[in-house]
Amino acid sequence: MWEADKITTQMKKGILEYLILSIIAKGESYTNDIIKSLKKANLIVVEGTMYPLLSRLKTDKLLEYIRVESQQWPPRKYYRLTSKGKESLKSMDKVRKELVKSVSAITK
């Protein structure tokens, strides 16, 4: 059972960046909104995983953020895709479609 859990975890890690970019592509997103979207799709991701991923995507210039001040809570970062992020997402989407076809052909 341990090996199956390990494989499942690795498969989810492999697709997480693509999913995050896909969520943010729909509109500016706050970290908790991204986590909620993933949970809604039965992908549980904790903040401790999310922040390093968002930071890396920003360092790679796929994301940028705006800081929104509020009197009710600390400032929030709302992420959006850069033009490089949009292009990367298009490429990732193409690869995903090709992988779905390949996996389907093999597992039929």
Any overview of this molecule?
With 108 residues, the protein is α+β, with helices and mostly antiparallel strands. It has a single domain (2-107), classed as Winged helix-like DNA-binding domain superfamily/Winged helix DNA-binding domain (Arc Repressor Mutant, subunit A). 67% of the residues lie in helices and 13% in strands. Strands 1-3-2 form a three-stranded antiparallel β-sheet. α1 (2-25) crosses α4. The model has no long low-confidence stretch (mean pLDDT 92).
Provide tags for this entry.
108 residues; alpha+beta; Arc Repressor Mutant, subunit A; three-stranded antiparallel β-sheet; globular
CATH superfamily: Winged helix-like DNA-binding domain superfamily/Winged helix DNA-binding domain
**Large-scale geometry:** globular
Question: What series of H and E elements makes up the topology?
Answer: HEHHEEH
In percent terms, what proportion of residues is strand? 5-15%
CATH architecture: Orthogonal Bundle
Low-confidence stretches: none
